[in-house]
Amino acid sequence: MATKIESDVSGSMWKLIASPGDMVEADAEIAIIESMKMEIPVTAPRAGKLARFLVAEGEAVAEGQVVAEIE
To answer: Is there a contact between 40 and 30 (Cβ–Cβ < 8 Å)?
Structure first.
Protein backbone atom coordinates (compact mmCIF):
# COMPACT_ATOMS: atom_id res chain seq x y z
CA MET A 1 0.00 0.00 0.00
CA ALA A 2 1.37 3.41 -0.96
CA THR A 3 2.13 6.08 1.62
CA LYS A 4 1.03 9.55 0.54
CA ILE A 5 3.41 12.46 1.13
CA GLU A 6 1.70 15.81 1.69
CA SER A 7 3.11 19.32 1.46
CA ASP A 8 3.44 21.16 4.78
CA VAL A 9 3.22 24.56 3.07
CA SER A 10 1.76 26.38 0.07
CA GLY A 11 4.25 27.39 -2.58
CA SER A 12 5.78 26.09 -5.76
CA MET A 13 7.57 22.80 -6.41
CA TRP A 14 11.07 24.13 -6.86
CA LYS A 15 13.14 20.96 -7.32
CA LEU A 16 12.57 17.21 -7.47
CA ILE A 17 15.62 15.59 -5.88
CA ALA A 18 14.69 11.90 -6.10
CA SER A 19 13.24 10.11 -9.12
CA PRO A 20 10.38 7.62 -9.33
CA GLY A 21 11.78 4.14 -8.76
CA ASP A 22 14.50 5.35 -6.38
CA MET A 23 14.82 3.61 -3.03
CA VAL A 24 14.73 6.27 -0.30
CA GLU A 25 15.48 6.17 3.41
CA ALA A 26 13.16 7.54 6.10
CA ASP A 27 13.56 11.32 6.44
CA ALA A 28 15.48 11.62 3.14
CA GLU A 29 14.83 14.81 1.17
CA ILE A 30 12.97 13.95 -2.02
CA ALA A 31 11.97 17.45 -3.18
CA ILE A 32 12.09 21.13 -2.29
CA ILE A 33 9.13 23.52 -2.20
CA GLU A 34 9.74 27.26 -2.43
CA SER A 35 7.45 29.25 -0.15
CA MET A 36 7.84 32.95 0.59
CA LYS A 37 11.43 32.85 -0.77
CA MET A 38 12.32 30.00 1.61
CA GLU A 39 13.27 26.47 0.54
CA ILE A 40 11.21 23.89 2.45
CA PRO A 41 12.34 20.24 2.13
CA VAL A 42 9.84 17.48 1.41
CA THR A 43 11.01 14.35 3.23
CA ALA A 44 10.10 10.68 3.00
CA PRO A 45 8.08 9.61 6.06
CA ARG A 46 9.46 6.07 5.80
CA ALA A 47 11.92 4.01 3.79
CA GLY A 48 10.68 2.54 0.52
CA LYS A 49 10.52 2.97 -3.24
CA LEU A 50 9.41 6.37 -4.53
CA ALA A 51 6.42 5.40 -6.66
CA ARG A 52 5.66 8.76 -8.26
CA PHE A 53 5.44 12.51 -7.95
CA LEU A 54 2.00 14.05 -8.42
CA VAL A 55 3.35 17.52 -9.24
CA ALA A 56 6.09 18.71 -11.58
CA GLU A 57 8.82 21.28 -11.01
CA GLY A 58 7.36 24.78 -11.21
CA GLU A 59 3.79 23.75 -10.36
CA ALA A 60 1.86 25.41 -7.54
CA VAL A 61 1.41 23.31 -4.40
CA ALA A 62 -1.23 23.83 -1.69
CA GLU A 63 -0.73 23.07 1.98
CA GLY A 64 -1.85 19.49 2.61
CA GLN A 65 -1.72 18.55 -1.09
CA VAL A 66 -0.37 15.07 -1.84
CA VAL A 67 2.84 15.59 -3.81
CA ALA A 68 4.31 12.06 -3.94
CA GLU A 69 3.76 8.42 -3.01
CA ILE A 70 6.12 5.79 -1.58
CA GLU A 71 5.53 2.04 -1.93
So the answer is: no
